[in-house]
Structure formats: structure tokens, C-alpha cells
Amino acid sequence: MCSIQAKKRSLAGILLAGVLSMLFLGGCGYTMVPNEYLLQSNETPLADQEEDEEAVLTEGDRLRNQMIAVLNLGRDLDKRISSSTALDEAASLFLEMILEDPETYIMSTQQGDMNEVGQNAYLYVYNGDLSSGSVATLALKDITEDETINTGTLLKTMTSISVTHGSGKKGSVWVILVEYIDE
After folding, report:
1. 59: closest CA among 158, 159, 172, 180?
2. Which of 25, 99, 123, 159 has its CA 20 to 30 A from that of 82?
């Protein structure tokens, strides 16, 4: 009986050693091959890929995200502002229209209360030569003034913001579109 148990233990030990060696050696071999394959087949270095990923986020997107973060400070969770793909597309269309004929659009710094687009959206247009910091300063001032009016008298809540920047043959502009909903 002792010899049968000893044989079982030695067989179990051999199997365990075999399985462990397969796991360790097999795992190393498996991870080495794909990494080498990826390095050989990849045409662009990893640093270039990281730069491309950062380039996907445009200057307008970065400014939008920063403005949303500032405007969300101290807001209730149910009244947080976010970005909207549909609003981004609308802002891009406004940008194209403005760049086609910039003389027909008055800059927000000169227009007063004429920036309402429909009942629930406000369009802000700023000189494209301004830095993103200058645009943020002007826009946040204008947006918070309009928000005070909208939430106080019109009972509307700001829901999303879109920011885009572009230039054409006749100049460059920043376009900020803000959407509100009725409370």
C-alpha cells in the first residue's frame, strides 16, 4: 500500500511540476511573440500614436471640457452641464455659416441680448484671434449673465455646451453654443 501511495504522490508531483513549467514557460513564450510581432508590424512608433490620440481632442473640445468643469463647480448633480454630439454638430454648422459670411454675424462682445437661437439655445461668437483663455473669460461672463436671466425669469436650466474654433479666407472665429431646457 505504501508503494502505491508513494507512486501516486510521485506521479502527482511530476504532473504538478509539468503543469507549473508549462504555465511559466508557456506564458513567457506567449507574451514575447505578440510583443515582438506588434513592434515589427507597427509602422509608427508608440510616441507618434500618443500624439495622434491627443490631437483628436481639438482646441475647442479642450476649452469646452474646461468650461463645463468650471460651470459645474458647486452645481447640484441633477443640474450638471455636459457635452452633446448633436450640439457639437450644430455648432460646427454655425461655424461654417459664419466663416462663409462673417460680416453678417456680430461678435458676442458687441451684440448684447441678440444671441438667442430659438427658444432653448444661445450662440456666442468671438474673434478667432483670441486665445482660448481670453475666450473662456469672455464666454463664462456672458454665459453666467444669461444663465441668471434664464433660470430666474424664464425657468430654464443649462444642459450642454459646445465650443468650436475655425478659420477661413475671411478670418477666424470661436463659436460657443449653449443649450437650455425648460424646468
Report:
1. 172
2. 99
Contacts of 94 (CB under 8 A, 6+ apart): 123, 175, 177
| Span 9-59, pLDDT tens digits | 554 555 444 444 444 444 444 334 444 444 444 444 555 555 554 556 789
71 shares its domain with 147: yes
Give CA 48 to chain center in angstroms.
Answer: 20
- DSSP at 153: T
- Contact (Cβ atoms closer than 8 angstroms) between residue 175 and residue 124: yes
* 83 plus 171 within the same structural domain: yes
Burial class (CB in 10 A: 0-12, 13-18, 19+), 100: exposed
Number of residues that make up the chain: 183
CA 119 to chain centre: 27
Residues 123-170 pLDDT 10s: 999 999 999 999 999 999 999 988 888 777 777 889 999 999 999 988
Instruction: Supply the pTM of this predicted model.
Output: 0.65
Q: Which residue segment(s) compose the domain that 121 sits in?
A: 57-182
Single-letter amino acid, residue 70: V
